[in-house]
Design brief:
Blueprint (H helix, E strand, L loop, with lengths): L2 H9 L2 E10 L2 E9 L5 E12 L5 E11 L3 H18 L12 H10 L1
Antiparallel strand pairs: 1-2, 2-3, 3-4
């Protein structure tokens, strides 16, 4: 059985749609899945390439699940936060902002 098949069985859903967004050393995966009752849920995965102490590379992954009953409130909250950032720091949405990705990653690692 492949890893993808295992993930689908563990998460209880079949993948319906997927979008990967590459952002510097991070990749975000937005995966829409269907339950057995044909309800949708969303998994959002952040994957970061990291280097181990032995010099080998690995991917550190963090995942959240978003269920249908939370879609509206989650979307409203995300839109509100993005609008706030766009108003106060519009330069974060320019292409040049992505040039600072490694320094943001380094700062996050220090936390």
């Amino acid at each position: 059985m492949s890893d993808v098949q295992k993930d689908v069985e563990i998460e209880g859903g079949e993948e319906v749609y997927s979008k990967a967004v590459r952002a510097g050393r991070r990749t975000y995966f937005f995966d829409v899945k269907a339950t057995r009752n044909d309800d949708y849920f969303l998994t959002i995965t952040e994957s970061r390439k990291k280097q181990g102490k032995d010099g080998s590379f690995f991917f550190d992954k963090h995942k959240i699940y978003l269920y249908k009953e939370d879609f509206g409130k989650f979307s409203e909250g995300l839109e509100e936060v993005i609008a706030f950032i766009k108003e106060h720091k519009p330069d974060f949405f320019n292409q040049e902002a992505s040039d600072n990705t490694s320094s943001i990653d380094e700062e996050f690692d220090r936390l």
